[in-house]
Specification:
Layout (H helix, E strand, L loop, with lengths): L2 H25 L2 E2 L6 E2 L2 H12 L1 H17 L6 H18 L11 H31 L3 H33 L14
Helix pairs in contact: 1-2, 1-3, 2-3, 2-4, 2-6, 3-4, 4-5, 5-6
């Protein structure tokens, strides 16, 4: 695939990814009991897309998808929109070490992916989102750090379980390099 085709593929992935992010966030979120904090299916999907298409695709899928979700539900909440973009970028950085596009996703890869995604989730939801909530919206620290802590936990679990399964499933659909051999006619 040449660079122009790759750019077009990435743009399409961003558009489709943002739409799926919105749909998952709007219709497949499970409330946790903490205000405005849910168990999300969006982040495992975001981790898959960022791993396949790279950190910048992950950044824009997270930003655009979360912004659309917010705009069509209760209003734009920039701190969490920006944090979703950061999470997508982080998942893409973690995913660069994986070879899922080559059909490879081993137990070692799953462990490496999960260590990385936990770090991304903690940075995103325990640090960035609460700090931005305080700086942008003057939210009370105890409230936003509770929301961020719960979000980090449930997002790390959902990405760890669903995201790992998505990556394993995706890798299993790809042809492993070197798996095709030329057959010789035996006569």
């Amino acid at each position: 695939m040449n660079k122009k085709q790759s750019s077009i593929t990435t743009l399409v992935a961003i558009g489709v990814g943002a739409a799926v992010f919105f749909i998952l966030g709007r219709f497949l979120s499970i409330p946790t009991g903490i205000p405005n904090t849910s168990i999300e299916t969006t982040y495992p999907f975001l981790a898959l897309m960022a791993t396949i298409f790279g950190p910048f695709a992950g950044l824009f899928i997270g930003l655009i998808g979360h912004a659309i979700k917010d705009l069509l539900t209760y209003g734009l909440w920039w701190s969490w929109v920006l944090t979703s973009g950061f999470a997508g970028f982080g998942f893409g950085i973690v995913g660069r070490r994986l070879k899922v596009n080559e059909g490879i996703f081993t137990l070692k890869d799953a462990i490496q992916f999960n260590i990385g995604q936990v770090i991304v989730n903690v940075l995103s939801w325990v640090v960035i989102a609460p700090v931005l909530d305080i700086l942008i919206y003057s939210e009370p620290a105890n409230k936003v750090f509770l929301q961020g802590g719960v979000s980090a936990l449930v997002n790390a679990l959902s990405v760890g379980i669903i995201g790992t399964l998505l990556l394993k499933g995706y890798a299993s659909t790809r042809t492993k390099s070197g798996s095709l051999r030329k057959e010789h006619n035996r006569k």
